[in-house]
Design brief:
The complex is a heterodimer of chains A (442) and B (392).
Chain A lengths: L6 H13 L4 H27 L14 H25 L9 H23 L25 H34 L3 H11 L6 H34 L11 H27 L8 H32 L2 H12 L3 H13 L7 H4 L2 H28 L14 H24 L5 H6 L10
Chain B lengths: L1 H11 L8 E9 L2 H13 L5 E4 L7 H4 L8 H26 L16 H24 L13 H6 L4 E6 L7 H10 L3 E8 L10 H24 L51 H7 L8 H19 L22 H5 L2 H10 L13 H18 L8
Classes of the chains: A mainly alpha (442), B alpha+beta (392).
């Protein structure tokens, strides 16, 4: 039997979720996501009406769940760019099956992250325009040498470039959908978004070059974004934050958690939409290998942080790290270490690396661990500052959990809408790597 | 939609639409090897206006079609440079010229701190504007009214076939010869594609204009309601819109409509000294001494205050020539011997207390300013009654 997939089968398999009514499994997932989003939206509304005082943070812990969520979601997004840009530059052909999906997750994750900073943390989102440098009646400019302003530039650039990269990849697929579609309104929508793409080789020639250029830009961009996010902490003088290890440590952690999230959601998608022959166990195994690598880098960073605090001879640094491991937040710390460093080592075994249920559980644990990592970094440092008289303790309120739900609810709602309305795998890219799709003498 | 349908009809019924013009002859191929061969032959045969359509980029086609390497990279270079220069330029201008601020004791031009933003803006402009430039300049998109759209040819190449299209406006084009040529290189399903040369007039299609107008209305109404109404409802609050006291306006802060609280009985304002000679001009004339020296600054100050408060009635030179044109009784001149011989305290008393129809100016003119006016009045009197000896 010929197990080769033809180009038409690729089109059919990938377009199928768009062309038929969604399955029961999709509806159940969508209902769960909407429930989370509803709880989150309720919390956000209360925060909007009453102010950020309903949340648990206050001096000295002025950053808590919201900045934790922000860093967490920005990190989730990084896997998408890594898969779509860095693996593209490294000519990893297997990325074609998961790149579109990962890029979409990048965009949704950055939307979630931006929401935490602009809506929840600021408290008055209608003044968010003040974050941008524009000529105004106060004759004031933003402080260009503040890491928080770098953040605005980094995150908004990251979002825009990711969106353009994603859309550029979608254009040929919109054209394919346009030519498959018979429904009048759907066809009109696909026509508009396809921009009138004609599959002309004169266009492909420029298109491929531009894709390469964008990948070249996105690669340093993704490294810069989490570097700048880490500057929010590293540029300050607080013990536990003021460390040169932060940029690489944050980037590795971001890729780690992002791959775990992509792997988790892809397992759901391939099962729900029967895409097992396109997103294969091989793809999942490759992602698990990346998680093993970045997880070990994160583990190394944890060890190195302890070494640096001891080697620095600074009593405040030493105290902060001992306090992390043994103090009031020790539970969060050890959750983080076990999820991020210990469990992921199971991926050394090929059997576990290729077992879908096992990798799903480990992926979930990694994301729990990475969320706690940001929580530990932020809260332990702020709650135990230089002056014992200004020490404090952070306890979350129900609204803190509400905005945590807001992030997950929004993210999964967007993901589910995406898999329902857009091709989750790039049809053009998939066809280009099928057997016999390229000339034999080339 | 309208156009797509029209083109479909053209394609199916070319004979009935005799006025329509031929766009190209198309042929389909099944394997990448075939299309590369056919593209190479077409270029070798000297056709310039032809194109190859493939569902994904096929390696080696660019060389077979003799395409020059894409130069879209030049856009990235230009826009990236623009991004760096504009970001560094703005930050430098703000830090050095427009609003220099000392932050953390660092130099105004802290260039290492400019690196992150310069980098981000470079990447932003280089990627976004390059893509826009490629789409608009090279692709001439969006264009959903190309003759190839909605043809069986396009549906085939958007799925799994490889197509070759030789355009009718090529100088070497001859329908019969091209048809034979396409057959020769192995093309299947050879078909002509027609187009309507009057497609441009569609801009004034009432349906299109209607949609445009409706969109404009919806966007304008939405923007207006958002910016002028919705953003001023609870919970949105703006510092400009808070409850506050405005000068000369009733206030709803307190029941009696006054914005400020009435001071407690006997409250003394800052800098206020009680005036002990109320109703006693002789005592004032005898006891009060001008506390200011007649320096140039004091006299200048007195002049300003005099011109503001005194000159409307007394005239610019204190001659009693009112500038009010009889709306208020003219005062006598201040150059009489009587006033010239008054001690400073007497004049000060009149300004502070008023005299006859002249009201008190104690509320409008501060104490020192009143004394400065007295000095300036002395200057005026001396100037108006100058003597020979003054010239020496």
């Amino acid at each position: 039997m010929d197990s080769r997939i033809s180009a038409v089968q690729v089109d059919d398999a990938i377009s199928a979720p768009l062309e038929r009514f969604p399955s029961g499994r999709w509806w159940i997932a969508f209902a769960i996501a909407l429930t989370l989003l509803g709880f989150g939206a309720f919390s956000a509304t209360v925060i909007l009406y009453k102010g950020v005082g309903v949340l648990g943070f206050n001096q000295p812990v002025a950053w808590a769940f919201d900045i934790t969520n922000f860093v967490f979601w920005i990190g989730i997004g990084h896997a998408g760019t890594l898969i779509s840009a860095i693996l593209f530059l490294l000519r990893q052909r297997w990325r074609n099956a998961i790149a579109r999906f990962a890029e979409a997750m990048t965009i949704f994750a950055v939307i979630c992250a931006g929401m935490f900073v602009s809506i929840v943390h600021l408290g008055r989102p209608w003044l968010a325009g003040y974050l941008l440098p524009y000529p105004n009646q106060h004759s004031l400019w933003v402080n260009f040498i503040s890491p928080l302003v770098w953040d605005i530039f980094a995150v908004s650039t990251y979002f825009t470039v990711s969106l353009v990269f994603w859309y550029l990849g979608l254009v040929p697929d919109f054209a394919t959908l346009r030519d498959r579609e018979t429904h009048r309104v759907k066809k009109l929508i696909y026509s508009v978004f396809s921009l009138g793409w004609r599959f002309s080789n004169r266009h492909w020639s420029h298109y491929e070059r531009m894709y390469l250029i964008l990948a070249g830009f996105a690669t340093p961009l993704v490294l810069s974004v989490h570097t700048i996010v880490s500057f929010d902490f590293a540029v300050s003088v607080n013990p536990g934050w003021h460390a040169t290890i932060f940029p690489p440590y944050f980037v590795a952690g971001a890729v780690f958690s992002g791959f775990a999230m992509v792997q988790n959601v892809l397992i759901f998608v391939r099962k729900t939409f029967k895409l097992e022959h396109i997103i294969t166990v091989q793809h999942l195994e490759n992602m698990n290998k990346v998680m093993l690598l970045t997880g070990s880098m994160v583990g190394y960073s944890y060890a190195m942080e302890f070494f640096m605090s001891w080697y620095s001879g600074n009593p405040f640094e030493r105290f902060v790290f001992l306090n992390r491991a043994l103090g009031p937040y020790a539970g969060a710390y050890w959750t983080m270490v076990s999820c991020n460093v210990i469990f992921v080592q199971l991926f050394w075994f090929k059997k576990i690396r290729r077992s879908v249920p096992a990798m799903f559980v480990i992926g979930v644990l990694v994301n729990v661990g990475m969320w706690f990592e940001r929580y530990v970094i932020i809260v332990t440092t702020l709650s135990r500052d230089f002056l014992p008289s200004s020490w404090g303790h952070f306890t979350p309120t129900v609204f803190d959990f509400g905005i945590l739900a807001l992030g997950f609810g929004l993210f999964f709602t967007l993901v589910l809408l995406f898999v329902r309305f857009l091709p989750t795998v790039s049809m053009a890219e998939m066809k280009s790597v099928l057997d016999g799709s390229q000339p034999s003498h080339h | 939609m309208d156009l797509n349908r029209r083109i479909t009809r053209n394609w199916i019924l070319p004979k009935l639409m005799a006025t329509k013009q031929l766009y190209s002859l198309t042929a389909l191929f099944s394997t990448p090897d075939e299309i590369i061969h056919a593209a190479g032959e077409t270029a070798a045969a000297g056709y310039a206006k032809f194109d190859v359509h493939t569902p994904y980029p096929v390696h080696g086609l660019d060389r077979a079609m003799r395409l020059k390497p894409s130069r879209v990279g030049i856009f990235a270079l230009i826009f990236g440079f623009l991004g760096t220069v504009s970001a560094v330029g703005l930050m430098t201008w703000v830090a050095l010229v427009d609003y220099p601020l000392v932050i953390g004791g660092k130099p105004f031009w802290s260039w290492p701190a400019f690196v992150p933003i310069a980098f981000e803006v470079t990447v932003l402009l280089a990627s976004v504007l390059s893509v826009v430039a490629m789409i608009v300049i090279y692709f001439k998109f969006p264009n959903n009214s190309h003759p190839l759209h909605e043809t069986p040819y396009m549906k085939a190449v958007s799925s799994d076939r490889y197509g070759l299209s030789i355009q009718a406006d090529d100088v070497k084009f001859d329908e019969r010869k091209v048809r034979d040529f396409l057959q020769e290189v192995g093309g299947k399903e050879i078909a002509p594609v027609y187009f309507d040369p009057e497609v441009g007039a569609r801009l004034f299609d009432p349906k299109f204009l209607g949609i445009l107008l409706a969109t404009a209305l919806v966007v304008s109404a939405g923007t207006y309601l958002t910016l002028n109404k919705a953003l001023y409802t609870v919970p949105f609050d703006w510092m400009m819109e808070q409850r506050k006291l405005k000068a000369q306006k009733a206030s709803d802060l307190f029941k009696n409509g006054i914005g400020m609280r009435t001071p407690v009985e006997g409250t003394v304002a800052r800098g206020f000294l009680p005036y002990p000679y109320r109703g006693k001009p002789e005592d004032a004339a005898r006891n009060l001494v001008n506390p200011l020296l007649p320096t140039a600054d004091v006299i200048q100050r007195g002049k300003v205050r005099y011109l503001t408060f005194c000159s409307p009635c007394h005239g610019n030179f204190a001659r009693g020539d009112s500038r009010l044109r009889g709306q208020f009784p003219n005062p006598p001149t201040l150059h009489t011997d009587k006033v010239r011989n008054w001690p400073d305290g007497a004049i000060y008393h009149v300004i502070s207390e008023g005299q006859n129809v002249m009201p008190s100016y104690a509320a409008q003119i501060a104490r020192d300013d009143r004394w400065a006016i007295v000095h300036y009045l002395r200057v005026l009197q001396r100037a108006q009654n100058a003597q020979e000896s003054d010239l020496k």
